[in-house]
Amino acid sequence: MLDVPVYRNQAFGVALPRPFDDWVFSAGGSPRTITVLFHPRRSSLREQLWGALVLTSFDGPVPLGAVADQRVQSTWQPEFGASFRLLTRDSVTVAGLPAIHLVMGGAVNRVAVDVEEYAIARGRDLVVLQFRYPRGLPRDSVAAGYERVLLGLAIRTEVAAVAPVADSTVGGGAAREASMARALAGSPWRTRAVEARVRGDSGPGPMSVMVRLEAVNEDVRARDTLIVALRAPLTVDSVRGATGRVFPGARGPLVTLRLPQPVEALAATAVTVFYRLPEEDRTAQILGARAAGVRHAVDWLPVLEPRVDSSGAALPQHVVRRSVRFDLPEASTAVTAGHLAVDFTTNARRQMAWVADADPADASGFVVGPLQRVLLRPGPLVSVRVWLDPSLGAIAPEGRAGEIADAVLEAWAFYTRAFGRVAYEDAEVVLGDVGQMPVAGATLFLSPFATRDAVRESVARVWWGQTVRFAGRGAEWLSRALPRWSALALTAALDGDSIRQRIVRESEAQGGAAAALEAARRAVGDARFRAALREFFLNYRSRSASLADLRAAIGTEGSEALPAPSSLR
Q1: Please, which residues bridge with residue 36 across strands?
Q2: Nearest-CA neighbor of 197 among 362, 366, 318?
Q3: Which residues of 148-167 are buried (b: 16+ CB within 10 A; e: fewer)?
Q4: Number of C-alpha atoms within 13 angstroms, CB side, residue 286?
Q5: 78 Cβ contact partners less than 8 Å away, ≥ 6 residues apart
Q6: pLDDT of the residue at 287
Q7: Which residues in 81-173 belong to E strands, given as ranges?
Q8: 219 and 35 in contact (C-beta within 8 Å)?
Q9: Residue 258, Cα to own-chain centre: how many angstroms?
């Protein structure tokens, strides 16, 4: 039983208050359906004084009329038997969503009872709210409590587009991502800590990975099933439980684990996942060979939880304690998000450990190779360490490391004043042939030939994409638009607005995402827009945000210049 004023289900984005202070919630259901009963703490359910919340998902849009008819024919007529009477069936709106309202009467276990039910459709999700009125009790008092429940029901209404989802989890691309998102939808597990070990050897070949995940069950009931997913093209080789037991058959990109015993609500368990990072995969670009043996990885950690709820709205994100230990040949160096906590050499092997205690970023990336730390540049807000691929040192312009470090410090100071502080005291800059790697925490992967504008945009991703994480509709657009616009704002402040306007015109001609933000700024005025953007950052710092959240922060006038979430992925 859950004795709380409000039942909340983050996976479905639903919150439900209880009708009276002495009522409690009891949860149950099947893997695809959640059923929550609310009832007086000390009464028997046989007395028929209780209500229910049912949450489930369909493979396509909810056929609301057919669902209501099926509920009547398959559920209520058999339960009431010959005493069944359908009193009301009408279409209504509940929490801003279409619903069908049913009222039925009859007898259950010789208790005369009326049942009021609302079937609510949100995209492919069905929410059923049910109230029972035993006829032997004063109806007015019970109805007053049920009315509080109905008025207090909150359902997120940012509905994701309903599209067919491929069942195959083989291969990469959008089908693999969609399959992973579908499998994790509704998962109650939240990652609390990650301890990873990456081992690499000299020369070509895969790198072996072992990741221990601490997972907390945030459901209101015990759960005995846990899903582990890896992004393409990675696949799980094996999984061990907290006691060292090997889960049989746990292989592939997506594995479902049946735990040896249920994990109670808010309790934790641990699993250790073993897999390999391939030497090169040009399609997925997860890990690739680079100049002089430098290799990189992105989005390489296992996933236990969804980034969005079933409506497509961004879920609240939690800070995860993360440590990554590297076991490498003596001449190799590893750089990743966090701070370097361990670095020593023994038996011709280099042992390095990077720890991120308060890093909200989840798109962790790393670079491994014969990197050399060539510069340490302290600043008032952050200290910048520059690492250089030695094979590029001979052709990189002399003093380039210092110029890039100065540009990072300059941008860091501007974005702190413009948006607010971020939770990093050190920034790592890796200069090498690292392709289009994203920022990982406060670790920036750049070419030694990067322009000052490219450095400014890369630093902006520490604010937009790492500290504020994007999810839901428009996440990809936000990850392009906000860092680019921030770099334009810095250009205007330091190089003059005429330079900025020239860049904006070029961006508009190319259909650049930052042009829409610039149009919004002109619509609401510079001061209001900057204040709204700062408030947006402060409200969603260390959380996930969607395009709908940004539109709400800017206001109606400015958001007209931005794309609608429904028009984007």
Answers
A1: 27, 53
A2: 366
A3: ebbeebebbebbbeeeeeee
A4: 19
A5: none
A6: 40
A7: 85-94, 97-108, 111-122, 125-134, 154-155
A8: no
A9: 24
Amino acid at 61: P
Measure the CA angle with vertex 39, ends 36 and 40; round to 5°. 150
Give the number of other Cβ atoms within 10 Å of residue 249's Cβ. Answer: 11
Q: What global pTM score does this model have?
A: 0.64
| Spatial CA neighbour of 469 closest among 346, 341, 320 | 320
pLDDT digits (tens, 9 = 90+) for 463-484: 998 888 887 778 888 988 999 9
Judge if the upstream peptide bond of residue 233 is cis by omega within 30 degrees of 0.
yes
SS3 72: helix
Give the three-class secondary structure for 188.
Answer: coil
Residue 211 contacts residue 272 (beta carbons within 8 Å): yes
Q: How far apart are CA 444 and CA 384, in angstroms?
A: 10
Beta strands per DSSP E along 389-517: 426-431, 443-446, 468-470
Query: Which amino acid is residue 241, in one-letter code?
Result: G
Distance, CA of 261 to CA of 17 (rounded, Å): 31
Residue whose token pair is 């931005």: 562
Q: At what angle do helices 400-419 and 475-495 cross, to 10 degrees?
A: 100
At position 59, the amino acid (one-letter code) is: D
Domains defined for the chain, CATH in brackets: 6-155 (3.40.1000.10), 165-364 (2.60.40.1730), 371-450 (3.30.2010.30), 475-567 (no CATH)
Structure tokens at 135: 């006829």
Name the 3-class secondary structure at 560.
coil
Q: Using one digit for the tens of pLDDT, what is the confidence trace for 315-344?
A: 666 778 889 999 999 989 998 888 889 999
Q: Evaluate if residue 169 carries a pLDDT over 50.
A: no
Residue 193 φ then ψ, to 5°: -155, 150
Helix (H, G, I), strand (E, B) or coil at 424: coil
How many whole angstroms separate alpha carbon 125 and alpha carbon 113?
28
Cα–Cα separations (whole angstroms), residue 231 to 9, 95, 236, 289, 292? 26, 36, 10, 19, 27
**From CA 567, how far away is CA 451, in angstroms rounded?**
32
Amino acid, res. 391: S
Residue 30 is inside which H or E element, if any?
strand 23-30
pLDDT at residue number 29: 61
For residue 103, is it left (φ>0), alpha (ψ between -120 and 50) or beta? beta
- Residue 48: what residue type? Q
The answer on pLDDT for 495 being more than 90 is no
* DSSP, residue by residue, 214-235: EEEE-SSS-EEEEEEE--TT--
From residue 350, give the alpha-carbon distance in Å to each of 4, 374, 408. Answer: 51, 19, 29
Count each helix (H run) and each strand (E run) in the chain, helices first: 13, 29
Give the amino acid at 128: V
Q: Is-contact 204 289, C-beta < 8 A?
A: yes
> In one letter, which amino acid is 72?
V
CB neighbourhood size of 395 (10 A)? 8
